[in-house]
Amino acid sequence: MKYKTIENFFLYGIVLSAPLHLYRFYFYIGDLSFSRIFLILYLILFFRRNTNNAFKFFNNKNKSIIYAIIVFLVVYFFNCLLIGGPISTNSLVNIILFFLFSFVIVININNFERHEKVLYIFVISTIIPLFFGFFQFFNYVLSGTIIKLPFFDFLSKYMSPERDVGDALRIYSNSGDGIRFASMFSDANFWGYFQLYITLIGFYVYKFTKKNIFGVLTLLSILGILISASRSALIGLIIAIFIFLIYIKQLKRYLIYFLISLILLSVINTISLENNVATSLSRFSNETSVGDEGVRIALMLNGINKFIHNPLFGAGIGNLIVKGRIDMVSSAHNIYLSILGEMGLFGFIPFIIFIYLIAISLIRIIRRSKSIKIKYLSSIYLSLLVAIVFINLLYDFLWALECNAVLLGLMINFIYLNLSKYKKTHYIENQTNKSENRV
User: Fold this and answer.
1) What tens digit of pLDDT does each residue of 48-77 get?
2) How far apart are CA 185 and CA 169, in angstroms?
3) Residues 6+ apart with CB under 8 A from 48
4) Distance (Å, rounded) from C-alpha 338 to C-alpha 358?
5) Model's pTM, two decimal places?
């Protein structure tokens, strides 16, 4: 019992600290965030359990999703070693840790009750980012300035030497876009994406637990998306809700509410319509060089050109070099063009297969399952996946957020609990039917 409690502490610690990705200890390769500390300790302390669960997992017959990830990582590894650029080592460390987060969650959640508990922790993890985001917002509304607390100064000295935490926990204007709030994240869009996940998962948790705290967090997460002023997160939310309503067969019933909400969100988001339109169009201008930040067409064309010159293997990890806010980054501002440009078709094809397999597996679960809970949760996961696929047309943020790794791990774990009976006594349909009967 004590062993189980300690194990849960570290596993839930990984999930709870995932959005706290800003506060990191920096080393000569990559960085070590709080969630990564929990991850490494979990792997070390529970090595035998992780090894046994990994063997059990690989004994099941449906491993196509994992095979796609392994092929992608192998191509990524050799791409880094053979033709990688100056930041390729750091990129390799980050992406391996990213998938380790997901894999630990996939193999160590072996029943639906535990899966739901992790969902609760994931929703609760938004409390701290919401606190900082609304602190910024109300502080700006009331005084127009940032109150720098001693706590922030402490963090900036000991945990984030490359930038002032007071600057990262900031209010900033994005090229005339108006005021945007980034909470604890390095970019307001990142905060918006995280709140998008919490909005849908929080709705599921609230619906089936009826606990007001989850309902409140869901509503605050929607407000968080608006405060972040992330248009891509807002569009992603609209797409996710639309897909969700289709798959739970409630679109006709809630269509009028969906349209009214869409109009209200659009009005709120376009109060300064002229600036928003002008700025949005200027971002896609091709008048300046690739090195100029924010010129998205130039960045995308750079990725396309690298792919054309190296269609099979790409230009190498880290060779789409552009000058970012802080240091050199390798980006095409579109994850698909980034993968094509850096890894070519050998990296792009397994990545697309990986996304396709997750989507088709979730659709299969929706069609087969008789459980209301399973239909709702699989519809939410599918909706979020579609939103992520769309958002990454405008951004290549997938590996940048550790909460993405947690969400991805939950999706894959959910799929394998449903479609893979590698532990029949924990088959998810039986678990949910029992819990629904209790409710």
Assistant:
1) 888 888 888 877 666 788 888 889 888 888
2) 7
3) none
4) 21
5) 0.83
